[in-house]
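Q: Here's a chain of 161 amino acids. Please give me its 3D structure as tokens.
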Amino acid sequence: MAARAPHPGPILDPGWLFLLAGLALLAATVILPAQEDAQQARFYVERTQAAEQHRLERLRRYTDYLEALKRGDEATVRSLAITQLNQSPENLTILVPPSDVAERSASVFPALEPAALVLPERHVEFSRLQTMALNDSSRLWLLAGGSLLVFIGLLPPSRRS
């Protein structure tokens, strides 16, 4: 009986496709939640920085006002005397009608406050893979599926006789 020549196998073993697909699925299952956590942390840092800038602006305004009072700035002292002590110099006429005086606040603090704080918002749309990778129960299925694909990819090729 004549010996048969060995039959050449396929150029690309199909096991590699399963292996690569399994590794890609496992990598996505691990990397996507970490990436989402990092993006969420950046978002919180951005919000915190916006709040800090708002507080620093508020502090700067109050400090400037206090320094103006300590210097004895004429306009600041005159404004404070008019609003807080209801006194005005003899040569100064107040343009607010007497009927509106009761409705107006005498406090200087609203004028010192910066504009209202606007915090950045986060609107994110996830792909189906991201949604599954971020969900605890579906993440287990992705890990199991990826592991199964890697296992199938690592199986030795079948031999034909």
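Q: Can you summarize the key feature?
A: The chain has one domain: 14-154.
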